[in-house]
Amino acid sequence: MNQILVNDPVQDNTPPQTLSGSAAVYRKIKQAILDGVYAHNERLPSERDLSDNFGYARGTVRSALVRLEKAHYVRRKTGSGTYVIYNNEFQSKDIAEDTSPIELIETRLAVEPHIVKLAILNASNKDIRRLDEALDQLRQAGSDPGKFSTADETFHLVLSQCSQNPLLIWMYERINDIRSHSQWSARKSKILTETKIQSYNNQHKALVDAIRQRDHAYGCSLMRDHLIEARNDLQGTS
Questions:
Q1: Domain boundary among 58, 91, 124
Q2: Cα distance between residue 103 and residue 88, in whole Å
């Protein structure tokens, strides 16, 4: 399964010859990571060495590393360096083919209420503004199942980022990889009616309000109820 990375600023279909500056450096380092030149957990060369290697200024290299971090290929550790967090061995295993819709929901039920708890504890005002923006994207999707589904994946990923827990964020990125798989397309179009999308969006808004108000019990309860409803919808028992 090819990993679908959020906030990847230079997609693979961008012709290399059209890239310059930090975008070109970004693509070169990203490709080296994908090719296994830099392995999982390996520290990248210093900014100075990368600058000498690619023939770009250190500021340009630094900008490319920021992009790579936002796209979840690397993590920059102050005073230590930049480390690869992309795990090619994991990405090559197509777990989506072996995961049923119910198994996916059960996994989300095990993870997401705790994500909400941590988000209520750790989310900054800036994080909550990002949740509001993700909520606006859900509303703008209207009744289109495909657009709503994409916006929903983004909303729940932003929620995971509000937890400030790198491992949980990584886990939710893997969950989104499975949610994005083509096998779900037909199922989404049947479940995501206009009425159901409105119901889900009302739940999303209530969840954001609970996080803003730092209401642990209500927020976790909302998430559980939200996912149980999604499970019932999948089973046709709602």
A1: 91
A2: 24
Helices (H), 35-142: 47-54, 58-70, 88-91, 101-122, 125-140
Tokens of 157: 């990923």
Nearest Cα to Cα of residue 2 among 187, 180, 184, 146: 180
Question: Which one, of 102, 94, 74, 98, lies nearest residue 8 by Cα?
Answer: 74
Confidence check: pLDDT of 2 > 50: no
CB 4 within 8 A of CB 180: yes
pLDDT tens for each residue of 185-227 = 667 777 899 999 999 999 999 999 999 999 999 999 999 999 9
The SS3 of residue 43 is: strand
**Structural domain contains residue 8:** no
Report how many domains make up the chain. 2
Q: What are phi and psi of 115, to 5 degrees?
A: -60, -45
In this structure, what are the phi and psi dihedrals at residue 126, rounded to the nearest 5 degrees? -65, -40
CA atoms within 13 A on the CB side of 139: 10
Token duo for residue 38: 């830099």
Q: Using one digit for the tens of pLDDT, what is the confidence trace for 98-137?
A: 788 889 999 999 999 999 999 999 999 999 999 999 999 9
Residue span of the structural domain in which 85 resides: 16-91
3-class DSSP assignment, residue 77: strand
Helix (H) or strand (E) run with residue 82 in it: strand 81-84
Containing H/E element for 74?
A: strand 74-77
Q: Is residue 3 assigned to a domain?
A: no
Q: CA 133, CA 209: separation in Å to the nearest integer?
A: 13
CATH classification at residue 57 = 1.10.10.10
